Amino acid sequence: MPDSAESSGQGRTASWGGLQWLASREIGNAHGLTLGRVVIRKGCANPRHRHDNCEEALYLLKGRLEHSVGDAQVVLEPGDVIVIPPGVSHHAVSIGEEDAEAVIAYDAGERHYEGESEEG
Q1: Are 52 and 114 in contact (CB under 8 A)?
Q2: Three-state SS for 102?
Q3: pTM of structure
Q4: Helix (H, G, I), strand (E, B) or coil at 62
Q5: What's the pLDDT tens digit per position in 88-108?
Q6: How far apart are alpha carbons 21 and 69 in whole angstroms?
Q7: pLDDT score of 117
Q8: Beta-bridge partner residues of 52
Q9: Nearest partner of 82 among 109, 108, 104, judged by Cα
Q10: Is the pLDDT of residue 75 over 90?
Q11: What are the chain's domains?
């Protein structure tokens, strides 16, 4: 089931940062993809979650992220890309000296979001 708080073209802010949706089926400007911008504040982490219906690609614009994908950990620097398969739990911690900013894309017009906690 889509997370309507996050699927809105209006975006979403949270204590850890925020999401701004740029293209999706719900916004009405795309059918087969979802595109957005995410900011994770310095020292913060987004909730661990997964997307069962789509693959996710994240392109880091600035900052540094320690990203968990399943049981693996990877550190991302600006210009790095990570691709997360459908159904794999993941989250990111902003470990740089500034907020992390990234472009995120999903291969579905309506991505599903399932958080591992009530925070998601």
Answers
A1: yes
A2: strand
A3: 0.86
A4: strand
A5: 999 999 999 999 999 999 999
A6: 22
A7: 66
A8: none
A9: 104
A10: yes
A11: 4-115 (2.60.120.10)
